[in-house]
Amino acid sequence: MRPTTKGIAVVVAGLLLITSIILNVISASRDKEENQPDEPEKNPKEIIMETNHKNDSIFMYNHMTKELVQMPLEEYLAGVVAGEMPASYDEEALKAQAVAARTLVIYKMPAYGGRGCSQAAGADVCSSYAHCQEWISEEQMRKNWGEDYETYVEKIKKAIQETSGQIMTYNGKAIEVFYHSTSNGRTEEVSEVFSNSLPYYISVVSIGEEDAPRFEGSVTLSNKKFAEIFQSKYGIKLDPNKLASQIKINGYTDSGRIQDITVGGKKLRATEFRLLYGLNSTDISFEFDNDSITMNTKGFGHGVGMSQVGADRMADRGYSYMDILQHYYKGVEIIQY
Ligand SMILES: [Zn+2]
């Protein structure tokens, strides 16, 4: 029997109704789970005072060429924004990255009371993401972007110019900046990762990152390999056939990441465990098979401060770079240094 057009319309309408009911139920239960998510606020623009610091130059230790190089601060920032954030991101996200990067360098510069970078004498910062923040050369930008080079350079320069001289302060001082690639849906409180406690780092929601390329990660190792890696680091022998009973999660942080974990009787910070096995984050779940162990992760990076993906998602939803920064760094002011 051939279905009539009317019949199909009724079925489609029925399906749409069911889908909408399901979606409503899902979103209601999510709201409940998240316990009133602290949806970021849209802030009025602040009045920015002009100052004369725009011609500052910095000494950067280039960790690739092993040279100390001097360059204008704003030129250095272009290399940082290019190295730290995809240039395809929204302009407001790039501006947030520019202010975060500028704040990090001002915090470090001895000229402004900082300690500089310990990688080389006389360096304000270095070019390594593992130590200060990533910086890439013009040559590297050309390699990364190909025919989009001109467009992306202009876009990044604009983000830097439009936030010229702006940094984040707390109690009148440049804040200590941390940021990361992708969150697991919430940011991490700073003392869970670094030894210090800073009032502007509290755990906040970071919405819409589930579809980000690095949201989900996974590392699978043979049980034997897992035990070998552990033994070589801590000198403790694990039974490869009984890993499930030798790994115990002791507790979670407010952001849902693991706080600490006991492996073979040895208690570790999850951050240490993450480094040992090269995992993307400390939001880890384990799967045990007969011969192998799989560690699934959510998010990418330590989770503290601005999530770069989260910044782009906020920008997509109409938030400005100031909204973004004041969401991830609570109670900061954005001023001309
Ligand atoms: Zn450094």
Q: Would you mind describing this structure in some detail?
A:
This protein is of the alpha+beta class and 337 residues long. It has two domains: 192 residues, no CATH class; 83 residues, no CATH class. It is built from ten helices and 14 strands. The strands form five sheets. The chain has a three-stranded mixed β-sheet with strand order 2-1-3. The protein has a three-stranded antiparallel β-sheet with strand order 5-4-14. Strand 1 and strand 2 form a beta hairpin. Helix 2 crosses helix 3 and helix 3 runs antiparallel to helix 9. The longest helix has 30 residues. The protein starts with a helix and ends with a strand. Bound molecules: zinc ion (ZN). Zinc ion binds next to strand 3.
Short description:
With 337 residues, this protein is an alpha+beta fold. Helices cover 36% and strands 19% of the residues. Bound molecules: zinc ion.
Report the major sheet: 3 strands, mixed
Low-pLDDT segments, ≥5 res: 1-5, 8-37
Strand coverage percent: 15-25%
Give me the count of strands: 14
* Helix-and-strand structural type: alpha+beta
**Total domain units:** 2
- The radius of gyration is 23 Å
Molecules bound to protein = zinc ion
**Reading side by side through the largest sheet, how are the strands ordered?**
2-1-3
> What is the N-to-C order of secondary-structure elements (H for helix, E for strand)?
HEEHHEHHEEEEHHEEEHEEEHHE
Quaternary status: single chain
- Give the helix proportion (percent range): 25-40%
Average pLDDT rating:
89
